[in-house]
Write a structure and sequence with these properties.
It is a single chain. The chain has helices spanning 3-13, 18-35, 38-45, 50-53, 66-77, 82-99, 102-111, 116-119. By secondary structure, it is mainly alpha-helical. It has one domain (3-119): Uncharacterized conserved protein DUF2267 (Globin-like, Orthogonal Bundle), CATH 1.10.490.110. α1 packs across α2 (18-35) and α5 (66-77) crosses α6 (82-99). Mean pLDDT is 90; it is low at 121-129.
């Protein structure tokens, strides 16, 4: 999936414009990079469009809970309401899950703390499994 397709998909699924969709998608990739193992994140980035490949983690917090992840996404994107940040994060993760292989998605989720799989709004990988 190309970057513009990811943005368009996010715009359709959330009540946001393209600019906020870019901010949310970038914030989720950054927050994921702060939480996931470096090797898994490197592998995930290799399947993402160029616009998302170079987003680096600012800090490392590998034990970050889903609630903490949602709060971090809110901090990175300017979304003050934690429930809204969680919904936006889950939707963006769903779009990311459609852009990468199901195997890569499974490997990533296996390295994250409990609850991240449930955060996904569309858990299938691009190969449909």
């Amino acid at each position: 999936m190309q970057y513009d397709e990811m943005i368009d998909t996010l715009v359709r699924r959330l009540p946001v414009g393209a600019e906020q969709a870019r901010t949310v998608l970038g914030g989720v990739v950054r927050a994921l990079g702060e939480t996931a193992r470096r090797g898994e994140m490197r592998d995930l980035r290799s399947q993402l469009p160029g616009e998302l490949k170079d987003i680096e983690a600012e800090i490392r917090e590998p034990d970050r809970s889903v609630d903490e992840f949602s709060t971090r996404v809110g901090d990175l994107t300017g979304i003050d309401d934690v429930d809204e940040a969680r919904r936006f994060a889950g939707t963006a993760l769903g779009v990311i899950s459609e852009a990468v292989s199901a195997g890569q998605l499974s490997q990533l989720l296996a390295t994250l703390p409990h609850g991240y799989a449930e955060l996904l709004s569309a858990p299938a990988g691009r190969d449909g499994s």
